[in-house]
Amino acid sequence: MYEPVGYETYADSDAFVNGIEAQLPVEGSINRGWIPYDYPDNNEGYEAAKADLKSPIEISTENGKQGKELYGIYCAVCHGNKGNGQGILMTREKYLGVPSYSDRDITPGSIYHVLMYGKNAMGSHAGQVNATERWQIAQHVMDLRQNLIGK
């Protein structure tokens, strides 16, 4: 039977020139599955995303359906199923001040930015939904907004 050699954690090593096993990532590398987001977390970044950021996914029934499902999980509790700001937490007065989507001048880019970083009392949802899911939610929110303003 094979007996493995036991090594001490963080002991000197000959594998690398600097003698350290745990190397830092190569400069400029990114994590697998991570998509860089170039807009800063401030009002200027929000306005820039609102004006310039466009959805890379196609507007489709499938993306809308997925967006609606995700919206029901993460957003409706505050924003309401219709996007009118009357979610269950609002109607029970557990939380106040969630605006209706018809009250705001929003774009898919601004919605994505808010999901990425949060805004005012709303926290970031970047840890809960990935980039594609954020765009799907944005598509559904824009559909809700159209229904609210009657277009």
TrEMBL record:
Keywords: Heme, Iron, Metal-binding. The keyword RNA-binding does not apply. The keyword Heme applies. Gene3D superfamilies: Cytochrome c-like domain (1.10.760.10). Pfam families: Cytochrome_CBB3 (PF13442). It comes from the Bacteria. InterPro entries: Cyt_c-like_dom, Cyt_c-like_dom_sf. Residues 62-145 form the Cytochrome c domain. One of its GO terms (molecular function) is metal ion binding. This is Cytochrome c, class I.
